Amino acid sequence: MNKILVLIPYYNNIEGLLKSLKSIDADENLDVLIVDDGSTIKLQKELIAGSFKANGKILYKISEKNEGIESALNHGLKIAKSQQYEYIARLDCGDVCLGKRFQIQSQFLEKNPEIKIVGSNVLAVDCNDNFLYAINLPLNHEDIEKKMYFNSMLIHPAVMFCSSILDTIGYYPTQYKSAEDYAFFFAILKKHRIANLQEYLTQIEINEKGISLQRRQQQVKSRIQIIKDNFYFGWYPIYGLFRNYVLLVLPYRIILKIKKIKKNA
After folding, report:
1. CATH entry, 4-264, from 3.40.50.620, 3.40.630.10, 3.90.550.10, 3.40.50.300
2. Using one digit for the tens of pLDDT, what is the confidence trace for 225-260?
3. CA atoms within a 13 Å half-sphere pointing along the CA-CB vector of 80
4. What's the whole-number average pLDDT of the chain?
5. How far apart, in Å, do the first and last CA atoms of the chain sit?
6. What's the average model confidence in pLDDT over 45-50?
7. Is 186 helix (H, G, I), strand (E, B) or coil?
8. Are strands 58-63 and 31-37 parallel, antiparallel or unpaired?
C-alpha cells in the first residue's frame, strides 16, 4: 500500500482535473482520492485513468449534492484516516505538480519528524499558462508563525501533512467560509511545527476573472475572524488585521496588479 494519498476536490472542472493528474510524475508512488462535490459534469473515469501515470490507484468519493469545499475536504480526510495513509497531500483541479513533488515532500517529512506539514514555494500562471508571478514563502516555523497573521504562509494545493495530526486538531473547520485552509493551518500551528521548501514544487492557476467580489469579501472577512480568534497583543496580529481590513475594500484587479509588481520586482 502506498503511504501517500493526494486529495483533489472536484466540481465541474474535468479539464483542470485531467491537467493536474497528467502533471504527477510517473515515478511517484501514491494514490489519488477525487472527491466529487455534487458536480453536474460527471467524472469520466476512463479519461481519468488514462491521465494518471503514477504508481498507484485512483479512489472516488461522489456526493449527490453540492456541500461546499469544506465538506468535500473533510470527506477526503476521513477516508484517508480510515485507510491509514501516512501522508495526505493536496492538489486542486488545474494546478500542476513540478518534478517529483510528492517524493520530495514525503522524504523531507521522514527526515524531519518534528515537522508535521510542509509546503513549498509556488509559481502562479493565468488560465493560458502564462507566468504571472512567483510566490516565495518563509521557510522555517518561526517566520511562518509570525507572518501567518498577514495571510496564509502555506499555499493550500502545495502542502503535504502527516495524517497523525488529525488526532490532535481534527478536520477542516466549517465555520470560516472560503478560508477553511487558513483556519486549518492556524490549528496546526498551535500544536505542531511547520515548514516550506525553497523549491517551486507546484504551479497554481489564477483565474483573474473567476474570483467574484462576494466570494473574495467572504474570504477576507473569514480571515479577519480567524486572526481575531488567534489574536495576541503584538505587532504581527495588529498589522495583519489592518492589512486585511484594507484588502476588504480594495478591488481585486488592484490587488492583482500590486502582486505582479511586487513579485516581479
Report:
1. 3.90.550.10
2. 999 999 999 999 999 999 999 888 876 666 666 655
3. 34
4. 92
5. 45
6. 95
7. helix
8. parallel
| Nearest CA among 188, 157, 134, 223 for reference residue 23 | 157
Question: 108: exposed, middle or buried (C-beta count within 10 Å: 0-12, 13-18, 19+)?
Answer: middle
Q: Where are the domains of the chain?
A: 4-264
Residues 157 and 92 sit within 8 Å (Cβ to Cβ): yes
Residue 118 in 3-state DSSP?
Answer: strand
Q: Are 112 and 69 in contact (CB under 8 A)?
A: no
Residue 16: strand, helix, or coil: helix
pTM for this prediction: 0.93
Sign of CA dihedral 251, 254, 260, 263: negative
The reported pLDDT for the residue numbered 1 is 81
Q: Find the Cα–Cα–Cα–Cα dihedral 30, 36, 40, 46, rounded to 10°.
A: 30
Residue 55: HSE in the Cβ half-sphere, 13 Å Cα cutoff: 9
Cα 254 from chain centroid? 24
- Sole residue written with cell 496564509: 152
